[in-house]
Design brief:
This protein has 28 helices and 26 strands. It is an alpha/beta fold and 716 residues long. The chain has an eight-stranded mixed beta barrel, surrounded by five helices. It has a five-stranded parallel beta sheet with strand order 2-1-3-4-5, with helices on both faces. Strands 7-6-10-9-8 form a five-stranded antiparallel beta sheet. Keywords: Phosphoprotein.
Length: 716
């Protein structure tokens, strides 16, 4: 079916753009364009249309007045109409809805938006036309002069035809739910003729849920003998959603007995669409499509209640763009609006499915983070937001940069009032601006102190990497049967100029969240390879060195190439370097990780799975990955002397690993009793303070300068 689209806009440029959009939709669509609304009305007096695209602001008639004039015509009463508005004309939209507008598009309009809205409305309009055409296949041909001679049977036939062709759902069912009658209008929704459906039960025609609902309503009518209250029911016909306003009434015989149920329904699809759009207008920002302040207040009340009732923690983020006014003033409001939409898109893409984002006015946005575990979760999300918002924007072909300041309040810790939480977040946001902008601040002094500490630590990390403040120590790994030192784990240390010696627990989380873990991981790999080469040059034989590799390093860089390049650069012998990965990497197991690990294994690099038992690794992953060692987490080791269950778990892990041709390492070994129990449980190697604390390079020389070293129980 060919679709005829009439476009009315007083600007010739817009007409050309919209006509091009129609042409891009395909040859089955055509556009007729008018710069003058009155001329368009004259055209519609003599010609049909399937869709109207109308600009709101026009000199002769505005969009609402034009639609009202079209609706006054019999031929135009059901034509779907899209109004195009600029900026945030809320009152204009409501006026257009009252006049009979079907949908809206925000100017400037993209071709994707244009096509999606147009095709949806055309499909609904086409369906309505098809239903009307099908039900009018047997028109009544009786002439007025013959009316007085019409017999009773003919009159009955006339009534049946009227019922059949009326655009209302009408059906009757008996007490058992079988259809006694169905008019053509309703039967066409199912693509059938009435005769094909009469006599069949509800369950044969409607889907199970729909049939169950109808049966329950029918039972109420049959038992009470009274009509039901009106209800809305959706029908899907040829993929098009239609909504009907329905009523059920008792069907009685000549004796007044209820013998069935009469159901009628009026198509209210267009009205429902307008109502939903009006509701959407009341609760959403028209420029960005995000929820507005009204909906934010509702969601905050729900969040506060949920946190209090279930002991949860949430956070409110108030985000204000930095120096947005300058862009608005120098580039114009249209450029400012385009920027705000792009910012809104980036925020929407970052928030989780249970989180909530709103635009509350100007260049201010609010975000509710639900199910927060700790403040670090909030820090990470704020960093992501600031990072994404800080990326370049293309505004009218010109690159534009902007930043943001974020204020954070905790729910319910800081307050139980949504208005007060917003006020406190506003104070925190201005504190962020006073701290140099493009950062985030907590309202709570304690939490803000943590956030500022982490921000400072991130800056120190960058400086520490640039100024070579990091070094490695090496913790020995001992074979349980022989007592030989068979491995070393490289452990990073930070010689902080002000805080002194810092261990990984002091800075690795900030490093991971900030993305600096990539640089640190690369540094550790090269430093370990360099140290192996130094021992080789000195003629000192040391066991293999294991380095920890984070999941993020696998995601963000070509990890295997980085490791193999360093092995080649420092001429590291095969088997002298191994990598330790965590179960977290297995949980997000993918083909890329699989290929990277196999590439390492093929080139003589051993793979060890660290902290085994703390995650949820699949045995299939263990079977498929080229791992050579499993390292049992220290939490099991600490309880082994007093827990038979933990001893059984360790023994089971050892049997599993050996079946998969892997060696088993136990970390965190601190007592001789633990050592003995682990050896008895099948652990091949142990690591911990009992067999050796982390050693400096000088201490490694003392240990291995005279050949292979051995640990003797009781002499540590």
């Amino acid at each position: 079916m060919h679709a005829r689209i009439v476009i009315v806009d007083d600007r010739a440029t817009n007409l050309r753009i919209y006509a091009q959009f129609v042409a891009m939709m395909g040859p089955e669509y055509s556009a007729t364009c008018f710069q003058n609304a009155l001329e368009a009305l004259e055209y519609l007096d003599k010609n049909d249309a399937d869709l109207l695209i109308v600009d709101y602001r026009m000199p002769d008639l505005n969009g609402a007045e034009f639609i009202r004039a079209v609706r006054a015509k019999t031929s135009g009463s059901y034509i779907p109409a899209i109004i195009i508005t600029a900026r945030q004309d809320r009152e204009c939209r409501i006026s257009a809805l009252d006049a009979g507008a079907t949908d809206f598009l925000q100017s400037p309009v993209s071709d994707t938006e244009f096509r999606e809205r147009a095709e949806l409305l055309l499909a609904q309009h086409r369906k309505e036309l098809e239903l009307a055409a099908r039900t009018a296949q047997n028109p009544l041909n009786t002439h007025a002069s013959d009316i007085e001679n019409v017999s009773i049977s003919t009159a009955k036939s006339m009534l049946e035809q009227i019922i059949d062709t009326t655009p209302i759902l009408i059906n009757a069912t008996d007490r058992n739910g079988k259809f006694l009658f169905m008019n053509s209008y309703q039967s066409q929704l199912f693509g059938k003729e009435p005769d094909q459906l009469v006599g069949k039960p509800l369950s044969d025609i409607l889907d199970s849920n729909f049939a169950e609902q109808e049966t329950r309503r029918n039972i109420v009518v049959l038992e009470t003998g009274r009509a039901t209250t009106s209800y809305e029911q959706k029908y899907v016909s040829d993929g098009v959603d239609l909504t009907f306003h329905c009523t059920k009434s008792p069907l009685t015989n000549i004796d007044g007995q209820t013998i069935g149920v009469l159901t009628t329904g009026v198509d209210i699809t267009a009205r429902k669409f307008a109502e939903e759009h009006r509701t959407h207008l009341a609760l959403h920002d028209m420029l960005t499509g995000l929820p507005n302040r009204v909906l934010l207040s509702e969601r905050m009340r729900t969040t506060i209640d949920d946190c209090v009732k279930n002991g949860k923690v949430a956070a409110l983020l108030l985000l204000d763009l930095d120096r947005f006014k300058i862009i608005n003033d120098t580039r114009g409001h249209q450029a400012g609006d385009m920027l705000l939409r792009q910012v809104a898109d980036r925020i929407s893409n970052l928030v989780g499915p249970r989180d909530f984002a709103a635009r509350i006015g100007g260049d201010e946005f609010a975000i509710i983070l639900n199910d927060v575990r700790d403040t670090q979760d909030i820090n990470v999300q704020c960093m992501k937001l600031l990072s994404q918002i800080g990326l370049p924007y293309s505004i009218g072909g010109v690159e534009q940069l902007i930043g943001a300041s974020i204020g954070v309040t905790m729910i319910p810790e800081d307050n139980l009032s949504s208005d007060e939480l917003l006020r406190l977040a506003d104070l925190a946001m201005y504190e962020a601006k006073s701290n140099g902008r493009n950062c985030h601040c907590f309202f709570s002094p304690r939490l803000n102190q943590i956030a500022q500490y982490n921000a400072g630590l991130e800056a120190d990390l960058r400086e520490g990497l640039d100024k070579s403040q990091f070094f490695l120590e090496y913790q020995p790994i001992v074979e349980t049967i022989t007592g030989n030192y068979v491995g070393l784990e490289a452990l990073i240390r930070w010689n902080h100029p002000k805080k002194g010696l810092l261990l990984p627990n002091d800075f690795m989380r900030v490093a991971n969240d900030s993305g600096l873990i990539d640089r640190i991981g690369s540094w550790v790999i090269e430093a370990a390879c360099q140290q192996i080469a130094a021992f080789n040059d000195a003629g000192v034989v040391i066991p293999h060195i294991a380095v920890n590799v984070s999941p993020r390093q696998f995601e963000n860089q070509n990890m295997s190439a980085n490791i193999l390049d360093n092995i080649a650069k420092y001429n590291v012998p095969a088997g002298k370097l191994s990598v330790e990965i965590t179960e977290e990497l297995l949980l997000d197991h993918n083909q890329h990780v699989h290929e990277e690990l196999f590439k390492l294994r093929e080139n003589g690099v051993d793979i060890s799975i660290d902290d085994f038992g703390t995650g949820y690794s699949s045995l299939q992953y263990l079977r498929d990955l080229p791992a050579t060692r499993l390292k049992i987490d220290r939490t099991f080791i600490s309880r082994i002397e007093h827990s038979s269950a933990d001893r059984a778990i360790i023994s089971t892990i050892a049997h599993l690993a050996h079946a998969l041709d892997m060696r088993v390492i136990a970390e965190g070994v601190e007592t001789e009793a633990q050592y003995a129990l682990l050896r008895a449980s099948g652990c091949d190697e142990v690591q911990g303070f009992l067999v050796g604390r982390p050693l400096s390079v000088g201490q490694l020389h003392e240990l291995f300068d005279h050949g292979p070293a051995q640990f003797v129980v009781g002499q540590s």
